[in-house]
Specification:
The complex is a heterodimer of chains A (about 270) and B (about 350).
Chain A lengths: L13 H22 L16 H8 L3 H35 L6 H9 L6 H14 L6 H25 L4 H8 L4 H30 L2 H6 L7 H10 L4 H26 L6
Chain B lengths: L6 E12 L2 E12 L3 E5 L6 H9 L6 E6 L2 E2 L10 E4 L11 H11 L4 H14 L15 H13 L5 E5 L7 H18 L2 E6 L2 H7 L2 E6 L2 E6 L1 H6 L4 H6 L4 E11 L2 E5 L5 E5 L7 E7 L5 E4 L5 E10 L3 E8 L4 E7 L12 E5 L5 E4 L2
Parallel strand pairs in B: 3-8, 3-9, 6-7, 7-8
Antiparallel strand pairs in B: 1-2, 1-4, 4-5, 9-10, 11-12, 11-14, 12-13, 14-20, 15-19, 16-17, 16-19, 17-18
Classes of the chains: A mainly alpha (about 270), B alpha+beta (about 350).
Chain lengths: ~270, ~350
């Protein structure tokens, strides 16, 4: 425990500073959420409570455009998160269960590097790479780009979980005549499931939310939800954008929360 | 003790290096069929490394491990017909008791019905039939320990390896489980190789004990042989308590040696193989020494301290040359315990003493 003298709450101005940070972080989000229920055509004047913009999102003139974009976003996120999770699970197994091998630290750095490279750099580099090898920009390029930047996000919870699993379970399995593959499938994989699910959910939401890289590699014609929103905003902010944003935010919050709790599942039991 | 000279595990010149550190150095051991064999030593002595080498979790650097005539040193753990009870049990947390015990049987290719019947048998053996559907997290430490035992026994291994399986249990439970383990070993007739640092555990349970220190086997023998005829200073000191007197050995012949005790008295007593003339050590157990009146007995000294142990009292006697000797006396009204400061003589039979190799 922190000693009394170092107790943060005793620092002068700590409380106002906290409120300022919280305000700057969340006030814009709260404004958007509240105004998504605004009955008025204006984005600044309050005209009473209504769900008309949500209706607009699902049934309005722009609805087909957003529906296609949402379908793209979700399918891309599913494909990218699934691939990234498989790759991350294999990477974690190699990093944590294969003993020492040459280039282990380098591999660790490479797996996590995408977290540190500025996204815009990755975006430009990916675009240049695809055009250099003559890959036509479109749905597939988005999926490939997403798989790559989702790997570290899937890797972190999976590796954290695996680190917490003692290797005596695997030794016990081998002692009881399980081959290495059986040991992986029957012991390691079930024990890692919460970490793998958590990694998948995190990767899914990261892919769903991504704008910068997607915008660079998507090519003409294919839109995901974030790029569709961006496109719509450029023609002027309408209240329906707030409704979509609020929906997207809710999905994100649900997934991140789910990822957190799933990741902790079964922790106490061990 | 089983009268059987078949060798279950023949450990031949086994050396294990970790980098430049030698964990096991040229270890040779014969573990007999159907025997309760204990590897005993302080932590870090190499006993667990040896056990894990038999199980296949450590690759030995040199030598051979021959199991009923087959060298298994190069086989994977899952190819060796031995099973292990792990120190922390390592029960699979996502499987219930039945699934845990059945795991090895299914991997060996048994069909579910046969395996189920066998699971029932071993659970009965460890008296856990009522807990077949529980998850490991719903069991007490003692019950988990039995499940671990049942799981390792289920595939009827040729040799069962036990890695300090009692160390996580509390004292009362440990004593009960000791007896049970011994009974199960006799019932099943499986060779047990048991690792422990607890000498009492080793003495009470084992048919034979190997005392290990610094990666070397110091002595192999029955509990009685090791306690009463220790080979060297380490074994005498590690197994039970002993007094080591500095003596001058004058004569050695036919397993006996003559030596001059501090104070000048001379005795002829059993000597360990390899004892040599000159300055040496004489081991006498505290319970084999009697206190007599000053001037009598073999050595003289002053009672310097009492250590109260309940049923016994240890009296520490400082000899005239400054050496300290512990005498174990029964705490009874019949026996007079000398006061601190009192001059006393110490006496013991020559056969109770033993000249050791340093």
């Amino acid at each position: 425990m922190a000693s009394k003298n170092l107790d943060l709450r005793r620092f002068p101005g700590f409380l106002p500073l906290t409120y300022l940070c919280l305000f700057l972080l969340y006030a814009p989000l709260i404004v958007v959420m509240i105004y998504s229920f605004n009955d008025s055509n204006s984005i600044t004047r309050w005209g009473g409570m209504s769900l008309r913009w949500y209706h607009e999102v699902f049934y309005g003139v722009e609805a087909p455009k957003f529906r296609t974009a949402t379908f793209n976003s979700v399918t891309i996120a599913l494909l990218a998160a699934t691939s990234a999770t498989i790759i991350a699970t294999m990477a974690a197994t190699a990093m944590l269960r294969a003993g020492k091998f040459r280039g282990k630290s380098a591999s660790f750095a490479l797996i996590n590097l995408p977290l540190m490279v500025p996204e815009i750099v990755t975006a430009v580099a990916t675009l240049i790479f695809f055009s250099a090898i003559g890959f036509k920009a479109g749905y597939l390029t988005i999926v490939l780009a997403h798989v790559v930047f989702c790997i570290p996000f899937a890797y972190l919870p999976i590796a954290a979980r695996m680190q917490g699993i003692e290797d005596t379970f695997e030794q016990a399995a081998q002692d009881l005549y399980a081959t290495r593959f059986q040991t992986f499938r029957l012991i390691l994989l079930p024990l890692m499931t919460p970490g793998i699910l958590s990694g998948f959910l995190l990767a899914f939401i990261i892919s769903l939310d991504d704008f910068i890289i997607t915008n660079f590699v998507k090519g003409a014609g294919v839109e995901t939800l974030p790029t569709a929103i961006y496109g719509a905003v450029r023609q002027g902010i309408k209240p329906n954008i707030m409704a979509i944003s609020t929906l997207l935010l809710s999905v994100s919050v649900v997934f991140v929360t789910l990822s957190y709790f799933v990741g902790r599942m079964g922790d106490k039991k061990q | 003790m089983p009268e059987n000279d078949n060798i279950a595990v023949d450990i031949q010149n086994v050396t294990k290096m970790y980098g430049s550190f030698t964990a096991l150095k040229d270890v040779n051991l014969d573990i007999r069929d159907n025997e309760f064999f204990t590897l005993l030593g302080p932590s870090g002595c190499g006993k667990t490394t040896l056990l894990r080498s038999i199980a296949g979790f450590e690759d030995i650097t040199k030598g051979a491990i021959v199991l009923y005539g087959q060298n298994i040193a190069n086989l994977l753990p899952n190819q060796r017909p031995v099973n292990t009870v792990f120190q922390q049990y390592a029960l699979f947390p996502h499987m219930n008791v039945t699934q845990n015990v059945m795991f090895g049987l299914l991997r060996l290719g048994q069909d579910k019905t046969t395996a189920k019947a066998r699971v029932g048998e071993v659970l009965e053996l460890v008296q856990l039939t009522a807990f077949a559907d529980r998850m490991p997290s719903q069991l007490s430490g003692g019950q988990q320990q039995r499940v671990a035992l049942a799981r390792a026994l289920a595939p009827s291994p040729k040799v069962l390896l036990l890695d300090e399986p009692l160390s996580a249990l509390d004292l009362k439970l440990r004593q009960a489980v000791r007896l049970e383990l011994q009974q199960i070993q006799q019932q099943t007739g499986i060779t047990f190789v048991f690792v422990t640092h607890d000498q009492e555990e080793a003495l009470t349970m084992s048919d034979r004990i190997a005392v290990i220190e610094g990666g070397h086997v110091q002595q192999v023998g029955t509990a009685r042989e090791i306690y009463e005829a220790p080979k060297n200073k380490f074994v005498a000191d590690f197994i039970g308590e002993t007094n080591l007197l500095d003596v001058n050995v004058t004569d050695l012949a036919g397993g006996k040696g003559s030596c001059i005790l501090p104070g000048g008295a001379q005795i002829t007593c059993p000597a360990a193989d390899g004892a040599h003339a000159g300055p040496g050590h004489l081991s006498v157990r505290p319970e084999r020494i009697a206190i007599t009146t000053a001037g009598e007995g073999l050595v003289q000294g002053n009672a310097s301290r009492h250590i109260y142990l309940g049923t016994d009292v240890h009296v520490e006697v400082t000899l005239t040359d400054g050496e300290k000797v512990t005498v174990r006396m029964q705490n009874s009204t019949q026996i007079q315990i000398p006061e601190v400061g009192q001059s006393v003589g110490l006496d013991f039979e020559a056969d109770a003493a033993r000249l050791l190799v340093d």
